[in-house]
Design brief:
By secondary structure, the protein is mainly beta. The protein has helices spanning about 10-15, 175-180, 185-190, 230-235, 280-290, and strands spanning about 25-30, 30-40, 50-55, 60-65, 75-80, 80-85, 95, 105-110, 115-120, 120-130, 135-145, 145-150, 160-165, 200-205, 210-215, 220, 230, 240, 245-250, 255-260. The protein is built from five helices and 20 strands. The chain starts with 10 loop residues before the first helix and ends with a helix.
């Protein structure tokens, strides 16, 4: 198509970063209902998404897109309703600068009384098998805040990485519960068990009711997390309760109504997240409102 259009792509243009961003939107009115989802993710091998249909009976089926290694449908629809995701860009990954003792066996923590004390660094050996070569054994260091290591860009300092994926019980996507949901109530119960970085979810049922909710795990912080913090200052305070996640229900009405997200800021929370601009969602709004 580039050749047919006689368009030349320069090396400088190729070097420009490709900015991706998702969107989803719902529109209902005049006896019709539409839900669209466009999760813009770069191409990979294997690809992030692949189409799937699960057919149980004539009235019991689910169709949509899934992710390699995850059972069931992640984005899609069943006979009663459909659902769609975009990323909220909540911050769930921090670097925390640790203070270690001289022999690098302990790290500094604050006890329950607010005093300074020390805890042992957990050190374990892991063997990495390499095809065609000798296996390699590495020593892994860990604090209660996350894996501990130096970062080349920051000299001799040691940092714990606090990332939601390292926390026990996280990274669960209850796809079968989502796939079996039939209404707003059962869908919300399923999403409450979704322990992943937060998503904007728009759902719609066949009657034209539209629902929005924020899913996933929100981090409670005392300071901002998008720059390196001293570990005792930047340690996470906990996680948001699922009951605190935003929800919106738009009952079906005769006049058209709609809802859209495109990685824009959904709410104002201290230290919580980044977000894309409003240009894409404003374009969706202008089209849907017309």
């Amino acid at each position: 198509s580039l050749k047919q259009a006689s368009v030349e792509i320069t090396d400088a243009q190729i070097a420009q970063p490709y900015v991706v961003g998702s969107n989803n939107w719902a529109w209902a009115g005049q006896g019709k209902a539409f839900l669209a989802n466009d999760p813009h993710l770069g191409l990979t091998v294997p690809n992030v998404w692949y189409a799937m249909r699960l057919y149980y009976t004539e009235d019991d089926w689910v169709v949509g897109a899934s992710i390699p290694g995850i059972p069931g449908i992640v984005l899609g629809m069943n006979e009663k309703m459909a659902w769609s995701f975009t990323n909220r860009h909540e911050d769930v990954d921090d670097l925390l600068e640790e203070t270690l003792n001289e022999d690098l066996t302990q790290y500094q923590v604050i006890d329950d009384q607010g005093g300074v004390t020390w805890k042992d660094i957990q050190k374990t050996s892991e063997t990495i098998n390499i095809r065609g070569e000798a296996s390699q054994t590495v020593e892994v260091w860990q604090t209660h805040r996350g894996p501990l290591m130096q970062r080349r860009a920051h000299g001799d300092t040691y940092f714990s990485r606090a990332w939601i994926a390292f926390k026990p019980g996280m990274l669960s996507i209850p796809t079968f519960s989502i796939n079996d949901a039939t209404d707003w109530a059962s869908f919300n119960l399923a999403i409450d068990a979704m322990k992943v970085p937060s998503q904007n979810i728009i759902m719609m049922d066949r009657m034209g009711n539209i629902g929005y909710r924020s899913s996933g795990i929100g981090i409670q912080r005392a300071v901002i997390g998008n720059r390196i913090q001293p570990a005792n200052k930047g340690e996470w305070l906990g996680f948001d309760d699922m009951s605190e996640r935003l929800r919106l229900w738009l009952p079906a009405a005769e006049k058209p109504q709609w809802l859209a997200t495109a990685n824009q800021r959904i709410e104002v929370k201290p230290f919580a997240h980044g977000y894309a601009g409003d240009e894409r969602v404003q374009r969706l709004r202008s089209v849907l409102a017309g």
